[in-house]
Amino acid sequence: DTERKVSRKWEQKQVQIKTLEGEFSVTMWASDNKK
Amino acid sequence: ESERQQCISMGFDWGAYLVNKKSSAATVELFQHSPMSAHWGEIGSGMKVEVLNLDCNLNTKVFWIASVVQVAGYKAKLRYEGFGEDACCDFWCNLCTLDVHAVGWCATIGKPLVPPQTIQHKYTNWKTFLVRRLTGAKTLPNDFQRRVIESVKSQFLTNMRLEVVDKTKISRMRIGIIEEIVGGRLRLRYEDSDYVNDDFWCHSQSALIHPIGWCERVGHKILVASKDYKNKKGFKNAKQELFPAVKQVKSCGFKPGMKIEAIDPLNLSAICAATVKKVLKNGYLMIGIDGSEAADGSDWFCYHCTAPSIFPVGFCIENGISLSVPNAYKDSFTWETYLNETSSSAAPVELFDRDLPDHGFKRGMKLEAVDLMEPRLICVATVTRIVGRLLHVHFDGWENQYDQWVDCNSPDIYPVGWCELVGCELQAPPNMLV
């Protein structure tokens, strides 16, 4: 149940990171904008 | 008042104060009327944000990623990524300010993240470090700041007119015009007043304001207004739907003369023996506090029959609260004798709304609370007692005589950091003056 609740509320997203050495992306969780 | 004025502090440091007092703050979710309340469950320790890097000597504003260590109201203790377990540079920050963003925000505006200079040489490869720290972690939604802005907005607008309690004579109503709105709090100017600064602050969900025409509708006889008060050129009346809905009541069952216990609207630290003076329509009652009634009824006060500020006879004794009674009965008060001697009856218990929400407030929690006797002031405060849905709020650094009983859903209490969020002054405890 907890697993389902989390998956409803949070979505995985690719996040772009820019540092002085260059850019790369990571996978993070953010709350679903639509809900 | 002059002492209070000296205590105004824009720079009150909530973080240091909570640590110093070893106290916790009431979470934002407990304040349903507060901005972001519905979303705050998503905020927690371990969350990553992009935040202004204050440990750098560049001339431009740069950002770095920080981890939320602790949340207190709208404020969070943050630690820059790279410090590991070292708390030496932890800092408190209001998460709803413009310098806090979701991870990824800097890249969207082409701004490189710059590590704090204290640790800039700690890692030779920041990319590997950040990938390890960020993958699978939580961050804010991209539209977090838009949500903050939306949730602070009020549907009330300046120049709207409404009916409001007369602060100088609480039994009567006057027409108020909204002059200013700050975080959902309205600064109202009394329309009939000749004085420029004759204003009154209250929250837009306050029970002290009503739409134009309310007095007539409920049969409240004392409204200071001209015959054609319902419309005024150049002004808009605030619509009914902007005001909080009250429970619909066909026949409330209260009768004039019935005795109750009620929070004294002129001394909110006291719960008093009181009398239903008049029953208006739609469940509204005019209440008089026993023993302090002005002969002309000018201190009667209008409460809705479902208001959390009125209680059945015996409520105080049942909950170990000292009941304020008329002077003549001070040393020997019992409800039984008093009802006998005043030839009156107690309002039946079933007439009261005993809805008890699972509010989540705990003793000792810190918050920001309006001084309802001077409602333009919002002060550092603590919940010192809880009785059902009633919170006993103490203003930190002030005598207990200024304490107030407020309902858990009162729109006059706010989470730590609310004043900073909406841009109003927070009154620091007087002993915090340097």
Explain what this protein looks like in three dimensions.
With 35 residues, chain A is of the alpha+beta class. Chain A is built from one helix and two strands. Chain A has a two-stranded antiparallel sheet. In chain A, β1 and β2 (22-31) form a beta hairpin. The model of chain A is unreliable at 1-7 (pLDDT under 50). With 434 residues, chain B is of the alpha+beta class. Chain B has nine helices and 26 strands. Chain B has helices at 2-6, 14-21, 105-108, 126-134, 144-152, 214-218, 315-318, 335-341, 418-422; strands at residues 8-9, 48-52, 63-72, 75-80, 91-94, 100-102, 138-139, 160-165, 173-182, 185-190, 199-203, 209-210, 223-224, 236-237, 259-264, 267-279, 284-289, 301-304, 310-311, 323-324, 366-370, 378-387, 390-395, 404-407, 413-414, 426-427. In chain B, strands 8, 9, 10, 11, 12, 13 and 14 form a seven-stranded mixed sheet that branches. The model of chain B is unreliable at 1-9 (pLDDT under 50).
Q: For the residues shown, what is the average pLDDT of chain A? A: 78
> Given the structure, what is the number of helices of chain A?
1
Question: Structural class given helices, strands, pairing of chain B?
Answer: alpha+beta
Q: Which bin fits the share of residues in helices of chain A? A: 10-25%
Give the strand content of chain B: 25-35%
As residue ranges, the low-confidence spans of chain A are 1-7
Radius of gyration of chain B: 25 Å
Instruction: Tell me about the largest β-sheet of chain B.
Output: 7 strands, mixed
Mean pLDDT of chain B: 93
Shape of chain B: elongated
Give descriptors for this structure.
heterodimer, A: 35 residues, alpha+beta, two-stranded antiparallel sheet, 1 helix, 2 strands, 23% helix, B: 434 residues, 6-stranded mixed β-sheet, 13% helix, disordered N terminus
List the helices and strands and how they pair.
The complex is a heterodimer of chains A (35) and B (434).
Chain A lengths: L1 H8 E10 L2 E10 L4
Antiparallel strand pairs in A: 1-2
Chain B lengths: L1 H5 L1 E2 L4 H8 L26 E5 L10 E10 L2 E6 L10 E4 L5 E3 L2 H4 L17 H9 L3 E2 L4 H9 L7 E6 L7 E10 L2 E6 L8 E5 L5 E2 L3 H5 L4 E2 L11 E2 L21 E6 L2 E13 L4 E6 L11 E4 L5 E2 L3 H4 L4 E2 L10 H7 L24 E5 L7 E10 L2 E6 L8 E4 L5 E2 L3 H5 L3 E2 L7
